[in-house]
Amino acid sequence: MSTDSKLPAVIVSRKGGVKVIAINNSPVNALSQAVREGLAEALQRANADAEVQAVLIVGRGNVFIGGADIREFGQPRKPPLLTEVCNLIEASNKIVVAAIHGAALGGGLEVALAAHYRLALPEAKLGLPEVNLGLLPGAGGTQRAPRLMGVKAAAELMLGGKHLSATAAQAAGLVDRLAESGDPVSAGLAYANELLAQGAQPRRTRDIAIVDKATALAELDALAADTAKKNRGLFSPLKIIECVSAAVELPFEEGSARERALFAECLESAQHAGLVHAFFAEREVAKVPEAKAATPRALGRIAVIGGGTMGAGIAVAALDAGLQVVMIERDAESIARGQANVEKVYDGLIAKNRMTEDAKAAVMASYTPSTSYEVIKEVDLVIEAVFEDIEIKKAVFRELDRTCRPGAVLATNTSYLDIDAIAGVTSRPQDVIGLHFFSPANIMKLLEIVVPAKVSADVVATAFELAKKLRKVPVRAGVCDGFIGNRILAVYRQAADYLMEDGASPYEIDEAMRAFGYPMGPFQVTDLAGGDIGWAARKRRAATRDPRVRYVEIADRICERGWFGQKAGRGFYLYPQGARVGQADPEVLAIIDAERARKGISPRKFSADDIVRRYMTAMVNESAKVVEEGIALRPLDVDVTFLSGYGFPRFRGGPMKWADMQGLDKVLGDVLEFSKEDPLFWKPAPLLEKLVAEGKNFSSLNQLKG
Ligand code: 3H9
């Protein structure tokens, strides 16, 4: 039974003594005002109808109910509220059955928890993921879930934001009955009629008593301590625990009132705004003009050129998506190393009991190693992941041009080289595109799809299709040095270097950025990635570096000593005996002091707030340039790039959303203030100036024209 936008949001029918209430609100049956109103009305009618003995609630289409309508948040709330609807369901004098297929999430699960009996079909997914939006279950979920599944399990479900399968939900006590197959209406009717035949009565979740309150409260205390330690300043998780504590300590009505008050606080929070922005932006990025206009080409077999860390990671990502993968290396030794790199990933999973030897063998059956380009004659798409050198890449593309079948997509995984120039060495630039994976490529979500001038629209559409298959977050980028992410990164890393040379220690900078919400600070990241990588790039660019640009040599001084970071046992930090968390190094501080003295810089004091301001302002100013030049389609594409590939704290929504929330006039004010020290580096982005002059924000540019 699919959804039908021509029909009402709630469709009511009667099958014998059972009133069937079907939610019909594409795409995910979200609980919009029309749905809430329809549900409430249908229930009231069912209660008043002597012919009706039971009520069955189902969803049309692929899901039961995906939750409250997130798009309505922030608008004036129109009655009936979801809490009222849930209370109405629970209070019904006829038995109410929820038949769940697909997602029953957030408010969707809250509707089911208010029903008297719950049936789940095999593909059902049940969860209270509000925490992912900076919220808590606000329609009785924090009060009813603990009564059904136990206090600790319910709190963990809400804090984790993950889904339970139908069987796991039944084991947890959320579901009474599993249907083996069928559609929700027939399975739900069979269950409702069975219950009626047994003389089943309304069974209200609110009436379940929570026993052993002392143990429950002690468990919640332990969860609160753990959450406070792990969640890096997130607001709603601790509020969830407060609500669940209220469920233990207070009568249902009072607990629910507490839940409503704390839900309202979460709804007002900046973190909620950031997380909702992230939710929609991640879905918006795939909507690019080419993906709408063109049909993707075939995508069954792919080839990866190069079996290094990156090539192997890409091969694993493709194998995991069920694709046939050919890996090409130049000689027997290199291809053996490439295969070992692939197998290492699966062996790691086997060691952690997350994969069996048989499953590995099944995956590896789709993998073909080769040292000859001839085997890739028939593949649909090739991803080149060889050494980052334009001449080597051009040679590979000449070879691909010679061997690949007409219409094959030829992609490069370069992270900053000129893809137009690479495409230019082939006779088919319309087939050449950039697919910039992030390391480790089988894990990192971001995929920058870099669109050179001559590529055809269906190749871009194919790249987006590939991203979907690989379950990556695709972001469309234009060609420039570093595309979206690495170009902007280069600028804010420079701001961090200036801060360091001007007086802040790398440890203070890292600490300030961790407090902002990053999992690691920039100097920790350098140590983790290996200082030698950036050093090699700096040496390569030395000849072409603009002499007017301020250049900080501290990192070079550190690299000259072989202090390449974690792998070397020291970098900006010390890692005694292979420690993973570094310690501050007085010798690094002495190097920094010496560099400052050499340049005649007297160190200044920077507060954590000063550090964040400079770091973020540099990021936002460059991001504005990237949007203005069309390298990113919209500000939200920059946001998703940083959320998915650079560890940007999700609750801040991304750099552009962060800037909007600060106020662009304030951000521009900071750029202008800093530009007094260094007008070249802190040159305001014209787009930032324009938006401030027009009283607009970055979000105003998120709508694609046409
Ligand atoms: C809540 O319930 C609060 C309550 O406790 C208390 C209230 C008082 N609303 O993900 P997809 C859109 S908070 C509006 O690609 P899938 C989405 O933007 C909510 N729109 O599909 C997209 O639109 P478009 C708790 C929504 O099949 C389209 O639907 N619930 C909502 O891969 C398809 O989405 C959640 O957090 C929504 N709730 O996955 C669940 N959800 O086509 C959030 C989706 O214009 N949703 N859209 O781009 C999900 O996890 C997934 O969407 C779901 C389907 C698993 C349902």
User: Considering the protein shown, what is the CATH homologous superfamily of the domain at 10-267?
Assistant: 2-enoyl-CoA Hydratase, Chain A, domain 1
Give helix % range. Answer: 40-55%
Number of strands: 19
The parts where pLDDT drops under 50 for at least 5 residues are none
Distance between the termini: 33 Å
SSE-based structural type:
alpha/beta
The main β sheet shows up as: 8 strands, mixed
Q: Can you give the mean pLDDT?
A: 96
Give the C-level CATH assignment of the domain at 10-267. Alpha Beta
Rg, please?
28 Å
Number of helices: 29
GO molecular function, one term: isomerase activity
Main location: other
Subcellular location: Peroxisome
Organism: Cupriavidus necator
Output the keywords:
alpha/beta, binds (S)-3-Hydroxyhexanoyl-CoA, 706 residues, Rossmann fold, 6-stranded mixed β-sheet, 8-stranded mixed β-sheet, 19 strands, 2-enoyl-CoA Hydratase, Chain A, domain 1, globular, 29 helices
Indicate the topology.
Blueprint: E1 10-15, E2 18-23, H1 33-48, E3 54-59, H2 82-91, E4 95-100, E5 103-105, H3 107-114, E6 117-120, E7 125-127, H4 141-149, H5 151-160, E8 163-165, H6 166-172, E9 177-178, H7 184-197, H8 213-230, H9 236-249, H10 252-268, H11 270-284, H12 289-293, E10 301-305, H13 309-320, E11 324-328, H14 332-351, H15 357-364, E12 367-370, E13 381-384, H16 390-403, E14 409-412, H17 419-424, E15 432-437, E16 446-451, H18 457-469, E17 473-478, H19 485-502, H20 506-516, H21 522-529, H22 531-541, H23 554-560, E18 573-574, E19 583-584, H24 586-599, H25 608-628, H26 635-645, H27 655-662, H28 664-675, H29 686-694
Parallel strand pairs: 2-3, 3-4, 4-6, 5-7, 6-9, 10-11, 10-13, 11-12, 13-14, 14-15, 16-17
Antiparallel strand pairs: 1-2, 7-8, 15-16, 18-19
Helix pairs in contact: 1-2, 2-3, 3-4, 4-5, 4-9, 5-8, 5-9, 8-9, 9-10, 11-26, 13-14, 19-25, 20-25, 25-28, 27-28
This protein binds (S)-3-Hydroxyhexanoyl-CoA (3H9).
Keywords: Fatty acid metabolism, Isomerase, Lipid degradation, Lipid metabolism, Lyase, Multifunctional enzyme, NAD, Oxidoreductase, Peroxisome
GO molecular function: (3S)-3-hydroxyacyl-CoA dehydrogenase (NAD+) activity; enoyl-CoA hydratase activity; isomerase activity; NAD+ binding
Catalytic activity: a (3S)-3-hydroxyacyl-CoA + NAD(+) = a 3-oxoacyl-CoA + NADH + H(+)
